[in-house]
Specification:
The protein contains eight helices and four strands; from the N terminus they run ααβαααβαβαβα. The chain is α+β, with helices and mostly antiparallel strands. The chain has one domain: NADH Oxidase (3-Layer(aba) Sandwich), CATH 3.40.109.10. The chain has a four-stranded antiparallel β-sheet with strand order 1-2-4-3, sandwiched between helices. The radius of gyration is 18 Å and the shape is globular. The N and C termini lie far apart (about 40 Å). The structure holds flavin mononucleotide. The site of flavin mononucleotide (FMN) has 11 residues, from strand 3. Flavin mononucleotide binds next to strand 3. It comes from Leucothrix pacifica. GO terms for molecular function: oxidoreductase activity. Keywords: Flavoprotein, FMN, Oxidoreductase.
C-alpha cells in the first residue's frame, strides 16, 4: 500500500499493541533499505540499526524484563531524554502518561496497573520485531539530529508499507543485553528502540490520538 505523505504523517501514531503476525523479511529489508535515503550532515549517516526478530527477540525481552523487574538502575549513554523538562515540558510529559492511562482505563492511583503498563515497553508492546538505533559514543546533539531524521523517515515508511511502530527511549536504558543479543557496535551508545509489526487496532491503547500544540505556539512567521 502506497499512501501520500500527508496521509502517512496524519495516520502515524505510536502503536502499543500488535497482532501476533510477523512481517515478511523482504518487506522489513525494503523499509530499512529505503530509510537509508534519510539526509544527514556531511552525509555522515551516523546511525546503526539492529533489527531483532524471532527467538533473539524473545530472549532479549526476557533479559530486559528481568533487569527492569529486579529494579536494576537504568543508564543513558547520552544526555537523558527528560533533561530540561520543567514548566510546560514537565506538564506535557505528565499529560502524555495520563492520556495513556485514561485510554486504557487505569486510575492514576493504581500503581500496580501503571507499573505493568510501563513494563510493556520492554515487552516491545507485543510487537514481533524491534529495531535498536545507536550512534558513536563520541558524537553529540548535531549527530543525534541526523538520527532523529532517520527515525521519522523509518516511521513514515512503516506506515506507507502497512506496518506500525512505537519509538521508545525506554529501550535505550538497559544496554547490556541489547549489545550482546542485538550486536550493537562496541563504540556506540543506544539512542532508542522501535518496536514494530502489524497494529492491533482493536486495542484501547491504540485508540489514543495525542494532541499537538497549534502552529502559532511553535512557529513564528516574520514578514
Ligand atoms: C525519541 C522518542 C522516544 C519515545 N519513547 C517512548 C517510550 O519509551 N515509551 C513509549 O511508550 N512511547 C515513547 N515515545 C512515543 C511518544 O510518547 C509519542 O510519540 C508522543 O506521545 C506523540 O504521540 P504519537 O507518536 O502517537 O503521535 C517516544 C517518542 C519518541 C519520538
Amino acid at each position: 500500500m502506497i499512501v501520500q505523505l500527508t496521509e502517512a504523517l496524519t495516520q502515524r501514531r505510536s502503536i502499543r499493541a500488535y497482532q501476533d503476525k510477523a512481517a515478511e523479511p523482504e518487506l522489513i529489508r525494503e523499509i530499512f533499505t529505503l530509510a537509508q535515503q534519510a539526509p544527514s550532515n556531511c552525509n555522515s549517516q551516523p546511525w546503526h540499526v539492529s533489527v531483532v526478530s524471532g527467538e533473539a527477540r524473545d530472549k532479549l525481552e526476557a533479559a530486559l524484563i528481568e533487569r527492569v523487574s529486579n529494579g536494576q538502575k537504568p543508564v543513558s549513554a547520552f544526555k537523558p531524554y527528560d533533561i530540561g523538562f520543567v514548566g510546560d515540558f514537565k506538564e506535557r510529559q505528565i499529560s502524555c502518561a495520563v492520556e495513556l492511562w485514561n485510554a486504557v482505563g487505569i486510575a492514576r492511583e493504581d500503581r500496580e496497573a501503571r507499573t505493568e503498563l510501563f513494563l510493556d515497553n520492554w515487552r516491545f508492546f507485543g510487537a514481533p520485531h524491534v529495531a535498536f538505533i545507536s550512534m558513536p559514543l563520541n558524537m553529540g546533539e548535531g549527530n543525534a539530529l541526523d538520527v532523529g531524521i532517520y527515525l521519522q523517515t523509518l516511521m513514515l515508511l512503516m506506515v506507507d508499507r502497512g506496518l506500525a511502530c512505537c519509538p521508545q527511549g525506554a529501550l535505550a536504558l538497559y544496554p547490556e543485553p541489547v549489545f550482546e543479543i542485538a550486536q550493537v557496535p562496541d563504540d556506540h551508545g543506544l539512542l532508542c528502540g522501535v518496536s514494530f509489526g502489524y497494529a492491533d487496532m482493536e486495542a484501547d491503547k491504540n485508540k489514543l490520538k495525542m494532541p499537538r500544540l497549534s502552529v502559532d505556539e511553535c512557529v513564528t512567521f516574520i514578514d
